[in-house]
Amino acid sequence: MGLLVLDTSYVGSAALFGCVFVVLWYLWNLLRGLPAGLPPGPRWCRLPVVGSLPWIDNKQMHTQLRDWAKVYGGIYHLQMGNLLAIVLHDLNLIKKTFAMDECSGRPDTALLNYYTQNRTLGVLFSQGDVWRENRRFTLSCLRDFGMGKFTLESKISEEVKILLEVFEHEDNVTGFDPHCHVITSISAIICSIVFGKHYTHDDPDFRQYLSVLDEQVEYLSNGAAVSFLPFLGALPGSPLTKFKNNWDWLRTVWLEKEIEEHKQTIDANHPRDFIDCYLIKMQAMENSEGKSRSCMSEKQLTTLVADLFGAGTETTSNTLTWGLLYMMRYPHVQQKIQAELDDVVGRGRLPTTKDKPDLPYTHATVLEILRCSTVVPLGVLRATTQDTTLAGYDIPKHAVLIPNLWAVSHDPRYWDKPDEFRPERFLDADGKVMTNREALILFSSGTRICLGELLARAEVFLYIACVLQRFTIAPPEGSTMPDERGKLGITWAPLSYKLNCDCSLKQRCSIWY
Ligand code: HEM
């Protein structure tokens, strides 16, 4: 009994001591000022070990960081657990910073390190020479497979046609959640480039890969504590453990098997897809430089393929799910697009990207969908690879760089009434589309600008044009209009909602192709 009393009082004293320590540390931080050379930052939200993390609102981090920029300016710093983060708000500063080679790293976090073996695998989260090599190869290979050309368009159109059928056969009385169909359809496009296979909407395995991807994207959320507090990863059931299990499963159950199958059936003279191209180049490098010196490997390929699957699926599908939601909320926009499509394309064939110049309102709406949704609101976090200077401040090596792309897309200095959905903002006085508005940087900029930008733009245009050519979409009868709240992972996704796309709503059933 005596021992128990002693123990309890010991624990109590330790807790009291801990609290006093934290309070003293907090006060000391408030009084001592900020480290010399760094940009400003909130002094009042810094605790030992966790730094500003307890104050970060994971669900709305992009708006919260925008609000803090009103106090601290276009560049400020935060202590995120064990990493110093530099938040960038100013458009010109983001562009300048992201063009610098020493700002093209990725953060040193437990999740990314596991996935990429300390940022040495793949293209999305790797850095240094590995990233440069993989990026060069991926870009040239995607170009060969028609990215930005009409050859890829036929793949997109095939998937659109299937999606239209799926929508048509859905329950159009009580409505349905479009996201599951949209993500399957969009993912099937990047998968056909990468794996040379056509994955169908009713393939249970493919559905499972997509649902695992959804989970991974949430774990990779930019403000996730586990990214900045490595010790959390050791706790049972931590997101790090779940992330690792998911990745190991996806790798072994799907990706490695696909690569093996390709190795068995490859014809070096007729590459079928991205995996074939990589294997052929890898063999050539091994022949010329020897296996140990070549930087290409099956391990690299596995992560590269996963990067393309992830980056090419979540982003565009969320953009489209937002797009359909906006179309329901702004029926006058939908009607204008339909009138333009009827005029220019008619109902006898699907719209194509060749029609784009003659469909300025549809094109402007697509740009407005991209701007309003900004589906990667805080970009893919970058990191400094050496000490550097930004806007006159000293930024140390390994600092995390957070570009608030969402804030730029919603900045009243560049966009009149930024919170309004108004496609007209992309049309000039002659009704022509202003495609290159400088502040539209949702694909980021500089050395690591999105590799799939052309593909994504083509996909969003074709899906929106084809869906609205065939259907008028609306919320199911009696249900309320979905609002514009979203869910933040690494991407910004709309909350789940239902739509009804009964084509009889506007007698659009007469479409035949
Ligand atoms: C609306 C759709 C999309 C948006 C908004 C988007 C946005 C972004 C952003 C913000 C980055 C980070 C760039 C940086 O680090 O500064 C990125 C990188 C990347 N994106 Fe996209 N993306 C989209 C679609 C796609 C598609 C369809 C692909 C498929 C090929 C893709 C592949 C990639 C890859 C591989 C990277 C990494 C580039 C690198 O680190 O060098 N993205 N994207």
UniProtKB/TrEMBL annotation:
Belongs to the cytochrome P450 family. Pfam families: p450. This is Cytochrome P450 2J2-like. SUPFAM superfamilies: Cytochrome P450 (SSF48264). Keywords: Heme, Iron, Membrane, Metal-binding, Monooxygenase, Oxidoreductase, Transmembrane, Transmembrane helix. The chain crosses the membrane at residues 12-31. Coiled coil: none annotated. InterPro entries: Cyt_P450, Cyt_P450_CS, Cyt_P450_E_grp-I, Cyt_P450_sf, Cytochrome_P450_fam2.
